[in-house]
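Input/output pair, single chain:
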Amino acid sequence: MELNAIVNEFRADKNQVDFLRNVAQSIGNIVKNNSNYLVRVKKTAHAGSVYKNTLLKNHLEVDCVYILERGYGLPLYGMLMEIENILKWNLPAGTRFKKNTHSISIELERKIGRVNVDVLAAYEVNSPLQMMEVRNHDAYYGSTALFNKKYFNNMTRIYPRFSDLVLLLKLWKDSRSIPLNACMLELIAAEAVSRTREGEDFSFFLEMCFRTMQSFASGGPVEPVYWDEYLDGADIDCSYGQNGLLMIDPADPNENLAKDISTQDINYIKSQASKAACFMRKGEYSFLYS
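Output:
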């Protein structure tokens, strides 16, 4: 298949996207309408692949972000516990909950399958610079999802097919079990776009994503690009990890997202990215999904 056909074949269709948006809206209404004096929702926001047009077909997953009034200034654990209690009272019996470091994962059984909802709660920050300065870092962490979404939307304005690049990288990641999360793939794609001349065709931009990934796995930095409105590069205070990698989170610029990648995984990423770049140069695209 040609690249455009692959994008169309593996992107979630409108029915799936609308269904997941309705799930997110429903969860949001439950939390907002049942807020109490401990947890009061200031605004509900949605992030993740459903809202970036990078959702893969049959991936039933959606992210919800709740920005809270400061109120009693609960720590993150307290916020999540209160939200979990609200949802347990209002969702069907048997709904599964799991607490993560910064979120609650919920599994909902629906007719079309099991839906995974990731719920993040946080107090609001106004900029990535402010995120760098807050003391109770965990209590603000969920706000980074909103800045990552702004970063993504900014890249889409710069390169209109940015979501297609990310979708194909996610497809390849799943087919090859690449140990990088979706946010990391977005940052690699953004770096690749910044390195590529305007007017190149889509296949060359995708090839550059894999070559940028090779560079990253060899120690090349991945830093925020086209982000001057929110961040001056001189303000960044983030260093390479002991593994020799650096990937700066544009939403939390003191955070090196790559610091915990193992040597074994680095070598695997480098090897697979090299093979992918070679396939791209030959015009062979089936490696993305098989």
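The radius of gyration is 20 Å. The mean pLDDT is 92.
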